[in-house]
Structures are given as structure tokens and as C-alpha cells.
Amino acid sequence: MIQLLLQNPLLLLFVVAAIGYPLGRIKVWGTSLGIAGVLFAGLAIGALHPDLKLPEVVYLLGLAIFVYTVGLASGPGFFASFRRKGLRDNGLVVAVLTMAAGLVFAAARVLHLKPALAAGMFAGSLTNTPALAGEIDFLKRWAPGGAHDPMLTDPVVGYSIAYPMGVLGVILAIAVLQRLWKVDYAAESQQSRELREAKGHLVSRTVRITDPAHSGRAIGELFRKHHWEVVFGRIDHVGHEQVVTADTVIDLDDRLSIVGRAEDVENVIQHLGEHFEAIDLDRREVDFRRIFVSDPQVAGRRLRDLDLVRRFGAIVTRVTRGDHEFLPHPDTVLELGDRVRVLSTPFGMTAVRRFFGDSFRALSEIDVMTFSLGIAVGLLVGLVPIPLPGGVVLTLGFAGGPLVVALVLGALGRTGPMVWTLPYNANLTLRQVGLIMFLAGVGTRAGYSFVTTFTQGGGLTVFATGAALTFLVALVVLFVGHKWLRMPMSVLIGLLAGLQTQPAVLGFALEQTGDDLPSIGYTTAYPVATVTKIVLAQVLLSLLVR
Question: Helix (H, G, I), strand (E, B), or coil: what is residue 206?
């Protein structure tokens, strides 16, 4: 079997993936390795023979695809996270990660750890695969032997030894402090109702106009005066229905359908009149459909620029992206894979569906030209030398270059006719395939060295140091965030999961709170934490090897 795998690298890749993926789904004490199970399967198989390893191009290709797709998906959230409290929260994330890098530097000097092994421990303790990828890429350019230097296995070994406690140490810190501080997640959930409603469920209600003060006024005028956060769908005027526009004038006894959060809708009804039975079930004069955005000509454009009212007599009342439904605004930018709820006349609905594309099959395809061009630009950016104080020269490499470019392109959405974003499902699929290729590649290439180091080269020291680092980082974040910044614990533990870039910790946080508040903290910290770890990992390596 070993000889067969030695002669067939492609077979080796899929054997590692087939064993590692189910391995990562096995839960121990409520947690699992997740996709990192592929890494440990690669380590185990690579340990069987010193030449049992995948070609370098396999993990480099997987790395480029993985970090690029992560960047595209995180782009809008990354730049939005610097607003309001997001700036404070991400400041905490960057400060703690910088502290962790400093502690690793000190530990490496005191314990006489090999530089690349210590850097791998940094990435494993913080469970960040892109940081590990950045370290390997740095060493390929710095090490005397280049891509074949034995030092390239050290970061993977350190990462693999420290990774398990990188997950369990955080969970342990949360479990200890929430019990010590007697955290009441139910009370926090109640106090944070406004935060939950900001991402809450949309409702549809109908109002009958009974207030004479609003009779004869246009909808656009009412919005400018009251700044309502709702969308008006259709109006029933003396028995005839039509789509509501900014120029629609309302009269007494008209019936209006309203979409928005329950609190906002109720506020509008109190201003205009009274509740009335639903009018949105009659589809003779105004029809409605949920339509997929699959046409690249539509993706990346603002709703106001699509001019749906003038072209089709249609409006969008809801947008669903992934599992999240939200209220559209004129400046809402549509993405491939969005589902929009459209109101139009039955005759105009066919043209509207054609305009948006409405093809589920098209959403499984990608624009190979923009996808490849984006990665190519990212790889070029990764080669640019960045001088730092002290004579250190840093490059973003195969990991950081594509990630930074993807963050920018993901935020832009499109430039001219070129759409940079990917359909939601296609992005997730490519991301997983890329990560599996990377983990299988680096796992098999480090497997033989892993066994040697753990049994003979101070593996227990790396394990204990990595565990202490993980636990200390978690304690600092929780103490500073909860006691000094007065953050709700339910949001804070999600922020800690984002700092660790660890979905398993997020799953534990969601189980503890019984609420979706941890997800808010997670999405706030994840993009900044990923980029910061990639940069710090390479800075740490450059300082250690000097």
C-alpha cells in the first residue's frame, strides 16, 4: 500500500481527505477537529515513510484558493468592522494577538525552541491555518534550501502539536469564567434585544389609512419626514392594486402592505391608521416571486441603479443572502446568489425574472476569468517586499497577498463589467476544496518529522507552552472585554471565537447562550484576526531567525 501511494500522489491526496474529513467530525467532550482532521490524517500517513508526501504545488494551489475565497466573502464585513464599536473590539483583538506574538518570541528564546517550530506553535495555539501558510511561504523564500529545506516541516509540526489545546483551552477558559462570574445569558439576551432585532425577522402587515393628516401625501414625502425603516409593497385604492413607488399618493381608506421589523412596522401603522386584513394574497393585479440573482450584469450594482420601477414597474421588498434575510434600501448592493422578493404586475414578472437571471444552475458556476485574474493579482502583491523598522523585509506571500487583494475586491463587488464576488454556494465549495488540498499537502510533508519531533525533539515542551498561551489569551480577552469594556459575555465569547478563527469555539458559545449573539462578535473579529495573524506570524519568524 505504501508503494502504491508513493507512486500515485493523486491517490494519496484523496485517501488523506477521505480519512481525515470523517475523523474531524468525531466529537470528544462536545468538540471536534473539524476540517483540521485532514491535517492530522496527513500527518499520520506521512509518518509511515519519509518520501510519502504530496507535491508542493498541491498545497500551494489549495492555499491560494482558500485564502482568496475567504477574503472575497469577508471583504464587506472587514471594512465595515472598523465603524463604531467594531473599531474598539478589533483594537482589542489586534492588541491581544500582538501580546501573544511577543510571548511566543520570549518563550522561544527562554526555552531554546527552533524558530520555525515556535512560529508553528503560535499559529496552532491560535488555530489559524492561513498564518501557518504564511510561515511556510516565508520560509520557502528565506531558508537556504528553498522549497526543499527541512526547516519547512517545523511550522507544521509546531502547529499540529499546539492545535488541539488551541480549541480545548479556549473552551475551558469560557467554561471556568462563566461559572466563576455567574453569567446569566438569558438576562443578557433580554438586555440586548435591540441588537438582536437589528438582524431580526421581517414581518409583513397591512394598514388602512384613517388619519386625514396623511391623505393626499406622497409616499416619498412621508419617508423624508419620518425616516421609516420599512418598505411599502402594494396599495389597494378603491378596489384596484398597484406597486407602491415614491410618487404614490395615499388617500383615506387605502390599504398599504408594509414589510420591516415588527417594531418599525407597528410604528408606521400607528402613524397612518389601523391594522387591516392582509392584501398580499391577491395576485391578479400585483404578483410576487422570490427570484435568484444569477445574472452578472445585475450583481455588484445598487438597487437604485437598476431602476426597476421605471423599467418593469417592480420593487424589491426583501433580500435573502445565505441564511440571512434583510430589508433592502436604495443603496443595497446585490450579490450573485441573493434571493430577492419582487412585486410586479403578472405581465411584468416574466421580464423581471429574465433581468435577474433566476437560474439556480448558473449559481453553481464561476467566472473563471475574474477568479483567476484576482488570484494572479494577489500572488503578485504577495511578492512585493515591505520594509519594516530594524531592517526587516516582509512580504505577504502566497497567503497574505491573495487575502488582501480579495478583501478589497470583495468590498468593491465589481469594477465595470467585471464581477469579483462568487455565488455563495460556489464560494463555500471552493473554500473547502482549497483548504483540504492545503491541509493534506502540508500534513503529508510534515508527517515523518512530526513523529520524530514529538518523541525526541521537545514536543511536550511545545504542547505545554502552546496550551498555556491559548489559555492566557482567552483569559485576557474575557477579563478585559467583560470587566473593563463592559461587553455582554454572550457577544464577547463570540468575539473570542473570532479571534481564534475557530468555528468549534463558536459552536460551543452558541450552545452556552442559546442565542445568536455570539455570531455577532464572531463576524466582527474574524476578518481582522485572520489578517493580523498572517502578518504577525511572518514578523515573528523574521525576528526569530535573525
Answer: strand
Strand-pair partners of 341: 290, 318
Q: What is the pLDDT of residues 321-372, one digit of tens each?
A: 776 778 888 888 888 888 899 999 888 888 999 999 888 777 777 888 999 9
DSSP string, 117-183: HHHHHHHHHTT-HHHHHHHHHHHHHHSTTGGG-GGGHHHHHHHHHHHHHHHHHHHHHHHHHHHHTT-
- Rounded Cα distance, 197 and 513, in Å: 17
What is the number of other CB atoms lying within 10 angstroms of the CB of residue 375?
21
Residue 478 CA, chain-centre distance (Å), reads 22
- C-beta of residue 368 within 8 angstroms of C-beta of residue 307: no
Q: Name the grid cell of 226.
A: 419620518
Helix/strand/coil (H/E/C) assignment for every residue in 258-280: EEEEHHHHHHHHHHHEEEECCCC
Sign, CA torsion 250/252/254/257: positive
Using one digit for the tens of pLDDT, what is the confidence trace for 190-246? Answer: 665 444 444 457 888 888 998 888 888 898 888 888 888 888 988 888 888 888 888
Whose cell is 527562554? That residue is 110
To the question of pTM greater than 0.90 for the whole model, the response is no
List the strands of the sheet with 315-321, edge to edge.
Answer: 287-292, 339-344, 315-321, 324-326
Helix, strand, or coil here: 342?
strand
Q: What are phi and psi of 416, to 5 degrees?
A: 60, -130
Q: Distance between CA 234 and CA 249 in Å, rounded?
A: 12
Longest Cα–Cα distance in the chain: 87
Instruction: Report yes or no: 316 and 340 within 8 Å, Cβ to Cβ.
Output: yes
**How far is Cα 35 from Cα 436, in angstroms, rounded to an integer?**
7
Give which of 499, 441, 451 is closest to 474, Cα–Cα.
Answer: 499
CATH architecture of 195-362: 2-Layer Sandwich (3.30)
Residue type, 507: G
Answer yes or no: are the C-beta atoms of 472 and 140 closer than 8 Å.
Answer: no
Please state, in angstroms and rounded to a whole number, the distance separating the CA atoms of residues 473 and 461. Answer: 18
**Residue (of 267, 230, 272) closest to 254 by Cα position:** 272
Is residue 302 within 8 A of residue 332, CB to CB? The reply is: yes
Domain ranges of the chain: 55-191+373-438+455-544, 195-362
Q: Please, where are the H alpha helices in 25-55?
A: 37-46
